Amino acid sequence: MAVARLEGKVAVITGGASGIGLACAKRFAEEGAEIVISDIGAQRLQDAAEDIRSGTNGKVSYVEANVCFEEEVAALMQSAVDEFGRIDTVVAAAGVSSANYVSGTTMQQLDHPLVDQPLEDWNRVLQINLTGVMLTDRLAARHMIARGDGGTIVNIASTAARTALPGAVDYCVSKAGVAMLTHAFAMEVAEHNIRVNAIGPGFIETPMTQGLQNDEEGARMMVDMTPMGRLGQPVEMANTALYLACAESSYTTGATLYPNGGMYIN
């Protein structure tokens, strides 16, 4: 019988109460990992943890944490170490599509032109999507370095890191930053046997895209931009993240993979 690919590993996943983060938590638990999820909203986290346990019988705990605040991310990482003894892999999946997005709810339309956008809205998107990933990465890496036997980090970027979406300039810039953060940070921590990679999803059936799915023009736009002619499923993103988190990608670092239905061959 094959050994599960993350057997004996401890995974911390931000944004783990819904969407891609939850899909990663489920998939990693299926492969034997002990899981710590974080997000905003204690009830949402409790429900997600029960969902993961019911499908995998895995060991799952949760910590409510806002990735904008260093002390909350530090407490998340310490909680994982206190409960499970180590951190082996991290998925930085917490993110928003716009300043008004609330985790677990539907996405706003692509309707906030940069020329009219309040500065505080721009700052919120960058704070969550980019600074939040940076804090997650470096605070996890500190524990991995202290332990001395490496680890893996998977950041959730977006196809919007390379494909401009008018009306969502803040989102595009934040995700381009995540891609470069991934490349540069990978170089810094390679000597510690820590691999840092990212995935750049295309349009995925998650709560974040629900607003566009519900709009006839928005739904058509997403499909028309995707040569495969359909939206992706969260589990397809989780499978990509699993590859980058486990030993099968042992010679890969500083890479961003784009599971996006062929959007870059247009």
At a glance:
The chain is α/β, with parallel strands linked by helices and 266 residues long. It has helices spanning 19-30, 42-56, 70-84, 119-147, 169-189, 210-213, 216-224, 234-245; strands at 10-14, 34-39, 60-64, 89-92, 151-156, 194-199, 256-257.
Topology summary:
Layout (H helix, E strand, L loop, with lengths): L9 E5 L4 H12 L3 E6 L2 H15 L3 E5 L5 H15 L4 E4 L26 H29 L3 E6 L12 H21 L4 E6 L10 H4 L2 H9 L9 H12 L10 E2 L9
Parallel strand pairs: 1-2, 1-4, 2-3, 4-5, 5-6, 6-7
Question: Can you walk through the features of this model?
Answer:
The protein has 266 residues and is of the alpha/beta class. It has a single domain (10-255), classed as Rossmann fold, CATH 3.40.50. The chain contains eight helices and seven strands. It has helices spanning 19-30, 42-56, 70-84, 119-147, 169-189, 210-213, 216-224, 234-245; strands spanning 10-14, 34-39, 60-64, 89-92, 151-156, 194-199, 256-257. The chain has a seven-stranded parallel β-sheet with strand order 3-2-1-4-5-6-7, sandwiched between helices. Helix 4 links the parallel strand 4 (89-92) and strand 5. Helix 1 (19-30) runs parallel beside helix 2 (42-56), helix 1 packs across helix 8 (234-245) and helix 3 runs parallel beside helix 4. The chain is globular and about 50 Å long. The relative contact order is 0.15.
Short descriptors:
single chain; 266 residues; alpha/beta; Rossmann fold; 7-stranded parallel β-sheet; 8 helices
**Compute the gyration radius: what is it?**
17 Å
CATH class: Alpha Beta
Proportion in helices = 40-55%
- Helix and strand sequence: EHEHEHEHEHEHHHE
- Give the CATH superfamily: NAD(P)-binding Rossmann-like Domain
Mean pLDDT: 93
The profile of the biggest β sheet is: 7 strands, parallel
Put simply, the count of helices is 8
Q: Count structural domains.
A: 1
Provide the low-confidence segments as ranges: none
Distance between the termini: 42 Å
CATH architecture: 3-Layer(aba) Sandwich
Kindly report the CATH topology.
Rossmann fold
Total beta-strand segments? 7
